[in-house]
């Protein structure tokens, strides 16, 4: 690898020749504790009894580094959190990097270091991977794909279809911090905030809920589409209405203020370290106390309602409703997928 | 009991007859529906949703002009996010132009356009300037900066509109059912009370300057109902201290220096005398050079936006509401904009 501050990714780093070897041997393999190992096409995992969970996700984010995280930490937490939503503890992670020609080597080094730290924090090994380089202008610096395998250490069915009428709906913290951090970091809005992304692994809260013996019916991490799309998907999967209490949904004042100013919907703002928890009413109080010990803003935000089969046509079209502070119910609408700030 | 409930009780206690009120601003329409205030008011109160959505009232011919400009390879077209999905007369919109490679940029503040112009000296950078007296001062500032910094590749497609002339026309229509008006707090923050005091005198109807939170809206409605029940017609400011009697002098000075009123087309409402702004000399040299628009043979979308904007048709009464016309495939601007009345009904009442 050429030394110096101006070192950058070249097309040859993805060409399978000497540059590729250098990148792998000098930067990537040492980060994941396998510098001495002879690389091979596949990693082996010990076979175990019981159930495994498997997930994959691709990560694109602009800018690559933002207040509270970077694409590397995102790529680890994202896949680990997807496993956690099945109640699984991660065993191994794959890491595929698509790098853009011209990416400063120093940026890649920071991203790799961040992946290493995050993987260690989640106690998961990066055991296989791949690196490709695309021409300048054909990528946004770094794209990452990670896949993760995890082990289930419980016998519950944690799935939208397990949700029952009367279940409590909890959220593990306040919403929208990641979305706001990214908007601010893009520097297009002239917004300034000291708020950081909520990006974090959700393993600990899930493990604690499981260890407390709570009958979890469904977990869902809130990502790009925010609370709105996650809760709507759960309602449809469960075949039940869900009623949310608007005033109970926790928002940091900076998020609420920025959304009001820009005409954005805080319920559609992205999160990367928050989840909803659906579980029987009798366990709600204990679960909430546990979540609040880790994140004081965790809150009970609603209740699962009657099966959609018995609901009106309007409720079937909009299975989730929000009750305003004045007590009026209105349907929750999903964003189109791209929030456009308003004029005035 | 919280303040909103106290205000609702006061409105119920004060209201003995049927009254039709119009809130001017689309932001107020959304807030009324979002909080469910329309369903909590006594049935004697009928709310008409006024023409105060800047995206909705931007004329089709101006939008067609913007789309034609965006289609020219040397142009970078900049506007607010809301404008991007409004269909022009042939059904195309700016977001679609961008997807097909057109240089269309979303800006959040007009001064951002200066940076774009400086960074792309070889391109014509056109700002589609829309909005009421709220956003026009920021466009005025952009115009002044462009001249002061001698930026020669910046052009302004000015579609700014003025609220008092359109209210004057609507209230002067013999068929107008509006008995009192909730004036838009943000516009009055800039323009102050005087223009609205004149409207009260000319049309003998109460006007109450009103804010945007649930409590502020209820305060405005209560003030209207009390005046109507007492047979009074006054200008009342229920949005103090945000709105000062004289408004924002600096903002008005910017408007005065850069713009002059002009008869302007409003989508669905026709040409409103003095209903818009144009650049005055020497700023008129920034006016965008027109692009040829292709005359469209396709029938205009069957959108009765004009009736909705005048409060003559409730959004759900439109035959296309929720079927042919949805926020994902809007036939007209009121379904696109985050301030449009149709979008509000679709969103909050399904």
Summarize the structure.
The complex is a heterodimer of chains A (344) and B (350). Chain A has nine helices and 13 strands.
Determine the N-to-C terminus distance of chain A: 51 Å
Give the termini distance of chain B in whole angstroms.
30 Å
The class by helix and strand makeup of chain B works out as: alpha/beta
> For this structure, what is the CATH class of the largest domain in chain A?
Alpha Beta
CATH superfamily of the largest domain in chain B: HypD, alpha/beta domain 2
Low-confidence stretches of chain A: none
Q: What is the architecture of the largest domain in chain A at the second tier of CATH?
A: Alpha-Beta Complex
In CATH, the homologous superfamily of the largest domain in chain A goes by the name: PurM-like C-terminal domain
CATH class designation of the largest domain in chain B: Alpha Beta
Indicate the mean pLDDT of chain B: 91
Total strand segments of chain A: 13
Report the portion of residues of chain B in β strands.
15-25%
How many whole angstroms does the radius of gyration of chain A measure?
Answer: 22 Å
- Main beta-sheet strand count, sense and barrel state of chain B: 5 strands, parallel
Number of helices of chain B: 16
Which labels suit this protein?
heterodimer; A: 344 residues; alpha+beta; 60s Ribosomal Protein L30, Chain: A; four-stranded mixed beta sheet; 9 helices; 13 strands; B: alpha/beta; Rossmann fold; five-stranded parallel beta sheet; four-stranded parallel beta sheet; 40% helix
Describe the secondary structure blueprint for this structure.
The complex is a heterodimer of chains A (344) and B (350).
Chain A: H1 18-31, E1 52-59, E2 65-66, E3 69-70, H2 71-84, E4 88-100, H3 105-121, E5 125-134, E6 142-152, E7 168-171, H4 177-185, H5 203-211, E8 218-221, H6 226-238, E9 240-245, H7 253-262, E10 275-279, H8 281-294, E11 299-307, H9 313-317, E12 320-323, E13 329-331
Parallel strand pairs in A: 4-5, 9-12
Antiparallel strand pairs in A: 1-6, 2-3, 4-6, 7-10, 7-11, 8-10, 9-11, 12-13
Helix pairs in contact in A: 2-3
Chain B: H1 3-14, E1 19-25, H2 26-34, H3 37-40, E2 45-52, H4 54-57, H5 60-70, E3 75-79, H6 94-99, E4 104-106, H7 112-119, E5 124-131, H8 136-148, E6 154-160, H9 163-172, E7 180-184, H10 185-191, H11 194-203, E8 207-210, H12 214-230, E9 235-237, H13 249-258, E10 259-266, E11 270-279, H14 305-309, H15 333-336, H16 341-349
């Amino acid at each position: 690898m050429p030394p110096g501050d101006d070192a950058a990714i070249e097309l040859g780093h993805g060409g399978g020749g000497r540059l590729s070897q250098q990148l792998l041997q000098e930067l990537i393999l040492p980060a994941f504790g396998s510098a001495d190992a002879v690389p091979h096409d596949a990693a082996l995992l010990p076979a175990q009894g019981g159930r495994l969970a498997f997930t994959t996700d691709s990560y694109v984010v602009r800018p690559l580094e933002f207040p509270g995280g970077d694409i590397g930490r995102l790529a680890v937490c994202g896949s680990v959190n997807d496993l956690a939503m099945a109640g699984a503890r991660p065993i191994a992670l794959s890491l595929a990097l698509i790098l853009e020609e011209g990416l400063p080597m120093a940026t890649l080094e920071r991203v790799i270091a961040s992946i290493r730290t995050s993987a260690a924090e989640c106690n998961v090994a990066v055991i296989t991977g791949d690196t490709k380089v695309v021409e300048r202008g054909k990528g946004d610096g770094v794209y990452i794909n990670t896949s993760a395998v995890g082990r289930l250490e419980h016998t519950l069915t944690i799935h939208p279809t397990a949700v029952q009428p009367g279940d409590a709906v909890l959220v593990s913290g306040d919403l929208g911090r990641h979305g706001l951090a990214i908007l601010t970091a893009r520097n297009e809005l002239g917004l300034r905030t000291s708020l950081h992304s909520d990006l974090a692994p959700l393993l600990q809260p899930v493990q604690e809920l499981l260890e407390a013996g709570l009958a979890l019916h469904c977990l869902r991490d809130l990502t790009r589409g925010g609370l709105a799309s996650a809760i709507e998907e759960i309602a449809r999967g469960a075949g039940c209405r869900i009623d949310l209490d608007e005033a109970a949904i926790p928002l940091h004042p900076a998020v609420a203020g920025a959304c009001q100013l820009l005409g954005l919907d805080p319920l559609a703002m992205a999160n990367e370290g928050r989840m909803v928890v659906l579980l029987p009413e009798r366990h709600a109080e204990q679960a909430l106390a546990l979540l609040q010990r880790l994140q004081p803003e965790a809150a009970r935000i609603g209740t699962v309602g009657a099966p959609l089969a018995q609901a009106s046509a309007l409720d079937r079209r909009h299975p989730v409703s929000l009750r305003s502070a004045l007590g009026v119910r209105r349907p929750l609408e999903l964003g189109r997928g791209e929030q456009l700030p308003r004029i005035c | 009991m919280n303040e909103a409930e106290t205000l609702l009780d006061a409105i119920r206690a004060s209201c003995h007859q049927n009254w039709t009120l119009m809130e001017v601003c689309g932001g107020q329409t959304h807030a009324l529906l979002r909080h469910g205030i329309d369903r909590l008011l006594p049935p004697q109160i009928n709310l008409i949703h006024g023409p105060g959505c800047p995206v909705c009232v931007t004329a089709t011919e101006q939008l067609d002009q913007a789309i034609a400009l965006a289609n020219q390879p040397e142009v970078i077209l900049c506007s607010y996010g809301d404008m991007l999905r409004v269909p022009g007369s042939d059904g195309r919109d700016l977001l679609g132009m961008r997807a097909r490679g057109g240089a269309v940029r979303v800006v959040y503040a007009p001064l951002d356009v200066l940076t774009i112009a400086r960074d792309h000296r070889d391109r014509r950078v056109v700002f589609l300037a829309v909005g009421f007296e709220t956003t026009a001062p920021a466009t005025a500032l952009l115009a002044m900066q462009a001249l002061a910094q001698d930026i020669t590749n910046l052009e302004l497609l000015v579609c700014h509109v003025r609220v008092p002339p359109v209210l004057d026309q609507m209230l002067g229509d013999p068929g107008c059912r509006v008995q009192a008006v909730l004036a838009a707090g943000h516009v009055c923050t800039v323009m102050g009370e005087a223009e609205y005091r004149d409207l009260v005198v000319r049309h003998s109807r109460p006007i109450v300057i009103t804010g945007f939170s649930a409590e502020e809206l209820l305060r405005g409605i209560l003030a209207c109902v009390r005046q109507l029940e007492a047979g009074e017609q006054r200008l009342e400011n229920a949005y103090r201290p945000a709105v000062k009697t004289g408004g924002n002098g600096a903002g008005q000075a910017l408007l005065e220096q850069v713009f002059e009123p002009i008869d302007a087309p409003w989508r669905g409402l026709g040409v409103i005398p003095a209903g818009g702004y144009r650049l005055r000399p020497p700023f008129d040299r920034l006016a965008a050079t027109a692009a040829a628009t292709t005359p469209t043979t396709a029938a205009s979308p069957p959108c009765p936006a004009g009736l909705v904007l005048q409060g003559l048709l409730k959004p759900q009464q439109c035959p296309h509401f929720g079927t042919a016309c949805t926020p994902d495939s809007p036939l007209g601007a009121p379904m696109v904009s985050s301030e449009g009345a149709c979008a509000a009904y679709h969103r909050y009442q399904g």
